[in-house]
Amino acid sequence: MYMKLLAFFAFTILLTSCGTFVETASVIRNETLCEPWFENESLEYGDLQARRIMKKYFRENGLDVYKLRLEDESWNEVICLACNCRTGRVIACDVKVDQLQDFRALGFEVTEE
After folding, report:
1. What is the CATH number of the domain that holds 84?
2. Is residue 85 included in any domain, yes or no?
3. FRET partner for 29 with CA separation of 20 to 30 A, picked from 22, 68, 77, 91?
């Protein structure tokens, strides 16, 4: 009887510990000088602070982001001061597939990873 009870609890724990699967897609975007998440912020932030600001913006707008990273492509930077000028950083992250349209509206493109 003891073994059956132990097996039952072990099976119950196993079933309840399984997380739900979230289907994601990888997206990228060239960071520009006029990002909506930096509206009242300076672009002089380092990567860590920039990621915090971006995550806060996405969270406040009901968007889920996974594995947010900033990649340095300063070799590809265009020197200008217009809003659409690139900063040299690329924003890359994984997002929920059902939120792809929202991220496309923000200028993100799906990658083929």
Report:
1. 3.30.70
2. yes
3. 22
Number of residues that this document lists for the chain: 113
Q: Which long-range contacts (CB under 8 A, 24 or more apart) does 76-79 make?
A: none
Point out the least confidently predicted range of 6-10, 41-45, 52-56.
6-10
User: Per-residue pLDDT tens for 82-100?
Assistant: 888 888 889 999 999 999 9
Asked if residues 61 and 55 have their Cβ atoms less than 8 Å apart, the reply is no
Q: How does the average pLDDT of the chain come out, rounded?
A: 80
Q: Residue 35 class from Cβ within 10 Å (0-12 exposed, 13-18 middle, 19+ buried)?
A: buried
- 9 within a domain of the structure (yes/no): no
